[in-house]
Amino acid sequence: MPADKQPSDKFVNVNGLNLHYLDWGGSSQKPLVLLHGLTSNAHSWDFFAQEMCQDFHVYALDQRGHGDSEHAKNGYWITLFTSDLYEFTKALGITFFDLCGLSLGARNGMAYAGEHPETLNHLVLVDFGPEMAVQGAKRVMASSGTPPMGFRNKEEAIEYFRQRNPRAKPEYLDNQVENSLRLNWAGMLVFKHDRELFWISGSAGKKEVPYLWKQLPMITCPTLIVRGMESDVLSPEVAQKMLSLIPKSQLIEIPDSGHPVPTDNPEAFEKGVRQFLLG
């Protein structure tokens, strides 16, 4: 984790689940809520959040089944994620905020924005649309469906994450290993996330595609669609269709970046998002 500023670890009970979140604080009264990607966690935003808390009060949420939040017995339908976010902000007394989501976070963000448009000031959707490009979907299913059971040491884990994201800087990989894994009873480093999340990238997720497309015209706040220029997940065609359906939307493409835009090109990502949010 970046050393300059440390967030506060906090928990809140939402929809019967104990959800963990990071409160980065900040001198501003403008709340910014960050949602991570599939099988990731709130700490994936650490480097970005540290910069953004100069201008916002930043909250990064471990969504159900991820990070240090509780696994959900009733599943991972998008309406449940949406309800979690609504109840989370309600519990914290956040009534009007900016929302930024990557991958699964963008998926849940567009659903939330369609259901609760009156609560959002701005929306940032990072490299995800209502449906994935075919090649990206195959890759995501392969990587999320058959991960290793665990790792014998940190070096082995770092190598695994490096192969999945070769553009990531060493400090990002260290942070990912530190916060994505836990030590189990056998002395192995194992993933924190619920393996039932795999079905989001498969049959369960496909059922929700029509619902997501219907949500887009319901989004009323200014919306920034961010696409990694080399992404195999958000295709140019889907990005353009999103642009045509979301009333107040704009699209930027980040160079030298695939799907994990904030780690592939963090400087360009932060610059683009900051300009959009602060106008």
Entry summary:
By secondary structure, the protein is an alpha/beta fold. Helix content is 38%, strand content 20%.
What report would you give on this structure?
The protein is built from 11 helices and 10 strands. The protein is globular. The longest helix is centred in the N-terminal third of the chain and has 14 residues, at 78-91. The protein has helices at residues 46-52, 78-91, 104-115, 134-145, 154-164, 170-180, 203-207, 209-215, 236-245, 261-264, 266-278; strands at 8-14, 17-25, 31-35, 57-61, 97-102, 120-126, 181-183, 189-191, 223-228, 249-254. It has a single domain, classed as Alpha/Beta hydrolase fold, catalytic domain (Rossmann fold), CATH 3.40.50. Helix 2 crosses helix 3 and helix 5 (154-164) crosses helix 6 (170-180). An 8-stranded mixed β-sheet has the order 1-2-4-3-5-6-9-10, with helices on both faces. It has a two-stranded antiparallel sheet with strand order 7-8. The protein has 279 residues and is α/β, with parallel strands linked by helices.
